Input
Amino acid sequence: MQTKVLKPTPESLALAAEILQKGGLVAFPTETVYGLGADATNAEAAKAIFAAKGRPADNPLIVHISSLSMLPEIVSSVPEAAQKLMNAFWPGPLTIIMPKGKKIPYAVTAGLETVAVRFPVHPDAQAMIERCGLPIAAPSANLSGKPSPTTAAHVFEDMDGRIPLILDGGPCQVGLESTVVDATHGHIILLRPGGVTREMLEEALGEEVALGKGVMEPLADGEKALSPGLKHKHYAPKAEVKVVLGPDDLRAQYILDSAAKDACPCVLCLEGRRGLYPGLTVLSAGNTPEDYAHNLFAALRHADEIGCTQVYAEGLSLEGVGLAVMNRVERAAGFHVIQL
Ligand code: TXA
Ligand code: MG
Output
């Protein structure tokens, strides 16, 4: 299959809608990462997503909408806390798990009675969903296990020959996948930190938000995951990743000593710390935690492109978007964390 890469225009959006309505797959930009979309009401179309990504069949998909009027078809009820969060953060990078409605097949939810719903703010994502008039099931548009794509070129790298169309809306603004919360337990549980931070959720709800088990630490063998995604290896480049935490001077010394023994090492750190690593390849995490989020997946892909065998990722504090960044880096490292 030939894979077209087109800028979003009325013509390419019409083509995308036609492909989606016929049960085909289209990759599209969102404010978080690129999604691999299919008709969320069509079980066969959803199965094609799992095949194209090589995704484990037990990992459910997020259903994307372009207006609140689509919600009653997708969920059977809207929990009170979910309503508060929708009012505060939709459209935007927040996914809310609610009781599943009848129109959504189990192929989308991987057999669960709950469904994850997201209303993206990206204008091209909204235009595509609106144009085809269907809720769109979409995971991140990477091959399963690889870092999520934040540009159309990343999608092409993974999906060339597997899907007919990639809409190229430029680089994604947030750069990490949406925050995922579960609203089906009477209180909100944070299952995946993201651009809508834990602090922002707590402020909107007026109460503390619990972090799901397995989010910031590996699950024990045989332990049940609240979200199937927590079981699977994620975001991993070919290079080995180690996260280094601790006082600034100790971190730099550890990385320099350790890198001296590696074939092709590199460091991922904020710009302000670049000077601590003379002679080492530095992948820039930018100037702020928000930049780190924006740059992380592209940096991990770049590490592979330049043949790095070892990435030393400097840790961040867990405040604000730091929690999401650390969640992704620690998973990319298989929870290989050096605490000094
Ligand atoms: O930003 C995003 O969320 C992107 C863009 C494309 O919207 N999508 C995305 O999808 O990251 P994906 O499939 O890579 O991640 C979805 C996560 C998985 O960890 C999955 O296990 C979890 O959401 N999830 C989906 N439905 C669920 C459900 N009913 N219960 C628990 N977890 C669920
Ligand atoms: Mg993903």
Observations:
- DSSP finds eleven helices and 16 strands in the chain.
- The first helix runs from residue 10 to 21.
- The two ends are 50 Å apart (CA to CA).
- The pocket of threonylcarbamoyladenylate (ligand 1) is lined by residues 30, 32-33, 35, 59-62, 95, 97, 109, 112, 114-116, 118, 138-140, 177-178, 180, 191-192, 227-229 (CB under 6 Å).
